[in-house]
Amino acid sequence: MQEPVTEGGATAVAQPNIALIKYWGKRDEQLFIPMTSSLSMTLDIFRTTTTVRLGTEADVDSVALNGKAASGEAERRVLVFLDLVRELAGRKERAVVDTHNEAPTGAGVASSASGFAALALAASAAYGLDLDARALSRLARRGSGSASRSVYGGFVQWHKGQGEGADADLSSYAEPVPVGDIDPALVIALVDGGPKSVSSRAAMRSTVDTSPLYQGWADSSEGDLTEMRRALSRGDFEAVGEIAERNALGMHATMLAARPAVRYLSPATVTVLDRVLQLRADGIPAYATMDAGPNVKVLCRRADADRVAEAVREAMTAGSVVVAGSGPGARLLTEGG
Ligand code: PMV
Predict the structure, then answer these.
(1) Is there a contact between 252 and 264 (Cβ–Cβ < 8 Å)?
(2) Which ligand 1 atom sits nearest the alpha carbon of residue 22?
(3) Do residues 97 and 81 touch, judged by C-beta distance below 8 A?
(4) Alpha-carbon torsion 329, 43, 32, 197, what sign?
(5) What is the reported pTM?
């Protein structure tokens, strides 16, 4: 156990990740244990920078998000997370949390993944918890499932874990996945930067509870993951893209069949999907994936990224396009004063 950091606090940086094999559904809501394993690529853009200082006097935590006091659900999730860190560290001091997101919050560009990866690292350092990467990934998971993956850079698998309770908690963590030579880029079509209509947490719960298609997707996702790992290790870009696209479309199919239906895909999403099909017909390997929002992330080779970005931009009547590469995992910037 390290000494807690007091002066200056601890600052951590993390980036979002985009899942190529999706996490959709929990089997333990308290511990954030997923129904299925998932696999993602960490991005080199949209950093979250979070500083955690221990307030010696204060009797409540204070949380600022992009310079403004956080409120509602966003604040509540951070407070619950800080309680967990204090419990693990055996400490009582309240914290001052200051977070800056470069990505639009809540737009389906996984700011909760970078957010809780950065918070897990900054808070654990501030409270003097000496966690290895696996333990940090398990801790980040408790803030947002996908955050377990942003602890690492490159391609990352989050294991669904085995058993119940403490066994599941110990066995559900992320770790890096070896990849061959695929030189990937993700062209991100931000068709709508606004907050999402339904939170991923509520949407996945209702899908698991009510969608007659859910179990079929969960079963097929296990096979997708095995095939994805093989395709990544042999550097088979086309196979990686095909598996990612079918896994994402299948996830959205489960939501469409939920009662009531959860539909994140908008007309602009479908326009971009059509453009991606056209790119493939023109001989450019480009594959789409979508999360809990209308934005589309197009997986392509880095060498094709400018052309893909231009094609996607042309197809859009509003919004913006950004190109991301593969980025690093969460890291600590400063410790102490
Ligand atoms: O960790 P959450 O609650 O933000 O859920 C993420 C869910 C998806 O982004 C849709 C899929 C994924 O694996 O990241």
Answers:
(1) yes
(2) 13
(3) no
(4) positive
(5) 0.95
Q: Residue with structure tokens 């307030």?
A: 55
Element (H, E) at 174: strand 174-176
Give 5's DSSP letter: P
> For residue 336, what pLDDT is reported?
47
Ligand 1 closest atom vs CA 158:
13
Angle at 80 between CA 75 and CA 84, to 5 degrees: 145
Whole-angstrom Cα distance, residue 234 to residue 241?
A: 13
Which residue ranges have their beta carbon within 6 Å of ligand 1?
19, 22-24, 38, 110, 112, 144-146, 200-201, 291-292
Find, among 63, 156, 65, the residue nearest to 102 by Cα: 65
CA–centroid distance, 144 to ligand 1, in Å, is 8
Ligand 1 centre and the CA of 291: distance in Å?
7
Question: What is the CA(253)–ligand 1 centre distance, in A?
Answer: 16
Complete domains list, the chain, with CATH:
9-179 (3.30.230.10), 184-324 (3.30.70.890)
**Cα 5 to middle of ligand 1, angstroms:** 31
Question: What type of residue sits at position 130?
Answer: D
* pLDDT-above-70 percentage for the chain: 93
Does 67 have pLDDT greater than 80?
yes
